[in-house]
Amino acid sequence: MAHKYEAVAQAIRDTIASSLRPHDALPSERDLMTVHSVSRQTVRAAIARLIDEGLVYNIHGSGTYVGSRDIFSKAPKLTSFTEDMASRGFTASSRVLAAYALDAEEEVARRLAVPVGSPCTVLRRLRLADNKPIAIEEVFLPTTVLDLDQLRLGESLYAQLADLGHEVIRSEQEITATALDDEQCRLLEVPPGSAALCVLRVSSSRQGRLIEFARDIYRADRYSFRLAVTKDESKR
Known about the structure:
Blueprint lengths: L3 H16 L9 H8 L3 H13 L3 E4 L3 E4 L5 E3 L6 H7 L4 E12 L2 H7 L6 E11 L2 E11 L14 H7 L4 E12 L2 H7 L6 E11 L4 E10 L3 E3 L11
Parallel strand pairs: 3-10
Antiparallel strand pairs: 1-2, 4-5, 5-6, 6-9, 7-8, 8-9
Helix pairs in contact: 1-3, 2-3
């Protein structure tokens, strides 16, 4: 049996599709409670689902607004690029730019906690949504995790890792601003000198083993990261 919040979420989806435009405000929580005869908790669960899907976004103290299909917003949940795009109704794809073996330089070695010079497999891809470029991804994996000869180009990297017993369970990310070079602008189809988001990601398995270090460059005009923070009550 479907939860009540799922019915409310679907009703809001239908309203957005029929009568709302990007950045239009949704009805207030109180209005949604009245219209659907549900509790505030149910309304908030429905909104949370739609936020996860990237269909709406919330501004604290202001309200909830319709998202834009031109902007992808990443919630702080461990999901793959393919899952992110699928949840928004887009088809994700990748174009392999390079795949090669490399001896780990200082930063890669430090991030993966391996000695400098350790052999790594490197995969560089252009990530797309409905054939439009979104990000350039560069992934470094110890060959003890995934050897270059084992790498199946064109298949899900995380699925391959899981098949080898290295399922990604946890990731730590560091997000900074960067300016794109000429090659990156060409690949992402943006004007020269455009700004971008650089995301450094270190992922580990359930056993705590470091599996990958990734350097992702996202188009700043089409991708954002959404974080929720709470006050540490123990400091009061």
